[in-house]
Amino acid sequence: MRRTVVLAVDPEQPEPAAIARAAQVLRRGGLVAIPTETVYGLAANAFDPEAVRSIFRAKERPRHDPLIVHLASAEELPRVARHVPPEAQRLAEAFWPGPLTLLLPRAPQVPSEVTAGLDTVGVRVPSHAVARAVIAAAGVPVAAPSANRFGHTSPTTAQHVLHDLDGRIDLVLDAGPTTVGVESTVLDLTSDPPRVLRPGGVPVEALAQVLEREVPVGASAGPARAPGQLLRHYAPRARLELFEGTPEATLHAIADQARRHLQQGKRVGLLLADEDVAALGALEPQEQVLVRPVGSRRDLAEIARRLYAELRRLDTQGPDVILARTFGTEGLGLAIADRLRRAAEGRVTRVRT
Ligand code: TXA
Ligand code: MG
User: Fold this and answer.
1) Largest CB tally within 10 Å, which of 7, 44, 296, 301?
2) Does residue 278 lie within any of the structural domains?
3) Domains: count for the chain
4) Contact predicate 131/145, CB 8 Å
5) pLDDT tens digits for 160-180?
6) Which ligand 1 atom sits nearest the alpha carbon of residue 184?
């Protein structure tokens, strides 16, 4: 056990003393949870193989799941990438700092612990003022996965980080809840055409517009190119059942399924849009139903921002089963659907109208 120190920092104008302390911990090989605009990351000096190994230990993460390297600016790309293709430059100009991770050929000085032995490296420049200040002050690229135990829901607050990692890491910078709420989009630029391996904070449509071509989603056939994506992920404790389809039909199917579970004496959690909650009406027995609205259907950014926190909150209230729905696949809807599908581990009902 280590003692985990928590320092409150201003999300826009972080206190220099807190930043200096975090940078010092990183330079000495320690682990610091830092806020990014997507989720909290568990940071270590990317050039220190022992520090990187300790990330895997703290998270209980399998060694074959590679980490993203975070830079203070795009100018530092040559420190970690062997080659920076013109499309990477264009995307960096359009989306950095921000929630886009680019897979590029790995530079030899990046330890193989970071990339899980792959010849590519995932790189991004986060936009959160605290993350950028810490990386700049540390003076080294920072390897950082989401700051949760492996397989758990990603953390969007410092409290989530502590719930999973208290006593396992040195420092948490608490800058309040993150603003994007889902992880970065992972784009493989070593394949032609570039492919999205994980939908995230930058919509696929926006990538296609800048690249002026179609951007397929999902790994191509052949050896796994996104090892982490094959693994169980984002899972709550309760069994999650997911429903997809038009809003009205989906809500109907969820209400029917909720009644079936209630008749079997189960406690049911519902993760729904604000509009759904209004339309749902009462389910009996009411004390066995936990309802959590995640935001308006018309505001996918809000739903993305709140998704993980609402899922964690609902889960801690102890339902046997959580029923949830997707919000289409346009824009941020694709990342929201991706995370819910993983949490559902295949229990997805496509509702026909
Ligand atoms: O928004 C984010 O990306 C957050 C914040 C902290 O930056 N980080 C994050 O890291 O979500 P993590 O480790 O939880 O997810 C990164 C995923 C891995 O599971 C892996 O699939 C993929 O990115 N990845 C990273 N490097 C890769 C590589 N070289 N090849 C293929 N996939 C890679
Ligand atoms: Mg993660």
Assistant:
1) 44
2) yes
3) 2
4) no
5) 999 999 999 999 999 999 999
6) 1
Looking at 211, 229, 253, the residue that finishes a domain is 211
Question: Which ligand is closest to the CA of 144, given by its number?
Answer: 1
Residues 10, 97: Cα–Cα separation, whole Å: 19
pLDDT in tens, 222-277: 555 556 555 566 778 899 999 999 999 999 999 999 999 999 999 999 999 999 99
Per-residue pLDDT of 31-41, as tens digits, reads 999 999 999 99
Nearest CA to ligand 1 atom 31: 226
Spatial separation of the C-alpha atoms in residues 6 and 19, rounded to whole Å: 12
Closest CA to 241 of 319, 172, 155: 319
- Peptide bond connecting 99 to the previous residue in cis, omega within 30 degrees of 0: no
Say whether both 108 and 206 belong to one domain: yes
Q: How many CA atoms lie within 13 A of 19 on its CB side?
A: 19
Range of the domain at 313: 239-350
